[in-house]
Amino acid sequence: MRDLxxxxxxxxxxxxxxxxxxxxWNSRDLPAVTCDLQKTNYSFVHEKGYxxxxxxxxxxxxxxxxxxELKFIKKTFGRLGFSNLSFxxxxxxxxxxxxxxxxxxxFVFLRGSVSLREIFLDALFYQKKINDSYVQGYLHHGxxxxxxxxxxQIEEAVxxxxxxxxxxxxxxxxxxxxxxxxxxGLVFEKKGLPLAAxxxxxxxxxxxxxFYRDVDITIGQKLYQSVxxxxxxxxxxxxxxxxxxxxxxxxxxxxxxxxxxxxxxLNYDQTPGQLRIFxxxxxxxxxxxxxxVEEERSYWRSMRGxxxxxxxxxxxxxxxxxxxxxxxxxxxxxxxARD
Length: 339
Fold this sequence. Notes:
Blueprint: H1 2-20, H2 52-67, H3 70-79, E1 83-90, E2 95-102, E3 105-111, H4 116-125, E4 127-131, E5 136-140, H5 141-161, E6 168-174, H6 176-190, E7 195-201, H7 209-219, E8 223-228, H8 243-247, H9 254-266, E9 274-279, E10 283-286, H10 289-309, H11 312-326, H12 328-336
Parallel strand pairs: 3-6, 6-7, 7-8, 8-9
Antiparallel strand pairs: 1-2, 2-3, 4-5, 9-10
């Protein structure tokens, strides 16, 4: 039953994707929300703790990494006072990191490039038990492979910039880049590198409750996540405590109950740290742990309502709009328009 459900999910996602775009749902291929980025403030607070300017800078930086050519990125970051830029590429999966220095701080910007279909399929089919000195638990297989392919080079670049002084380190990324930022921050902290903060936006879940308990204990007070309220990706893989609502997407039936059982077995848990939800025109607000749980359950219930009330095409079009809103450019513009 489990394999049948997962295979059905894969077919539906693949059909929807091919019907709409005939290409992967990659953020490069989708038009994003637009805004005048020339009028925004690219300031940064070189301090621990959450600062909205810092959250915005990491969103904007990952947008630049995803949409601009290398020459333009170097010129723009140089104009903003960044120096010693090092670009690191993970060729197999398309992820990229930029390590740079500004004043007495070191920055690690992470961009993950992957289609929505791959996010779903990796989430459903592949979990890997990690036997690593610094990471424990069952992790999303695709995210771990991205991380493995880049981490050593990132640490080497950071240590080169930190040879003569104990510069504080800020890490951030968007989507899968946000997931890698969490992993990088966790390992940096355990290795004694001077981690100041981790900012991620739109990050999907990385691992099970064992992994996240370790993250919470180690860097929970330094981890800050920003999520656009309508974005689907930060809610996948679905958490174990929203298993029932997620299973009901395919109906209140034996199949729905079986799907809920699969979600519970995968044991994905709530991302630690501070979570801030924002919407254009509605501001941003921090959610408590209880509010996080209810917000996610409500999201899956609303998706079930859409399925009940609309046609299959309506659902696919809604998913297309959600994916458009997931792009780093859309996050930047939505964050600007939040007030």
